[in-house]
Amino acid sequence: MNKLILLRHGQSQWNLENKFTGWSNVSLTQKGESEAKKAGELIKKHKIHIDTVFSSVLERANKTAEIALKKIDFINLWENDKLIMTCDKNLNERDYGDLVGLNKQETAEKFGKEQVHTWRRSYDIPPPNGESLKDVVERVSPYFRESIKPLLNQNKNILIVAHGNSLRAMMIELGMYKAEEISKIELPTGSPLCINL
Fold this sequence. Notes:
There is one protein chain. This protein is α/β, with parallel strands linked by helices. It is 41% helix and 13% strand. The protein contains seven helices and seven strands, in the order E-H-H-E-H-E-E-E-H-H-H-E-H-E. It has helices at residues 13-16, 30-45, 59-70, 104-111, 113-121, 133-153, 164-173; strands at residues 3-8, 52-55, 78-79, 82-83, 86-87, 158-162, 193-196. Strands 5-2-6-1-7 form a five-stranded mixed sheet. A two-stranded antiparallel ribbon has the order 3-4. It starts with a strand and ends with a strand. The model has no long low-confidence stretch (mean pLDDT 94).
């Protein structure tokens, strides 16, 4: 039985500041680095051998993968002290458009709490000039089917380090949740979810 591990990046500076991050490159906080280390320790504790790593192109996800896997001595994943992973923008976070960089509380005060909740949690209503979760699913699903699923079909253990919304999109693609259920799913930062296939 092979495994697919979904790991949301550790806490970023903008998570801490309660800002919409989207595709902005924001570094991990000290807490985020600690969460990444603990994720690696969990993977090591459960003796899960990782064959392949996928990540978004964003720094917070890449750094989480590197920190987590430093704890695990997989020779096949390291070359010249650099983690071998496939980074692709299709695994990036949802693009929050005009909301990127704005504080979530201040945005709710400006546009109304209900409107911001609709932008954040509805399936198919995007924020101004941004992506809806449906858009993210339409971006993530073909990439998953073409690049990740064939490896899973070969019984490889895969680690995907990405973002709350791109991982939710993947859970829809995997049939774990329906579109109308996914907005209630919270993925904590730095906490691996292991799926037995």
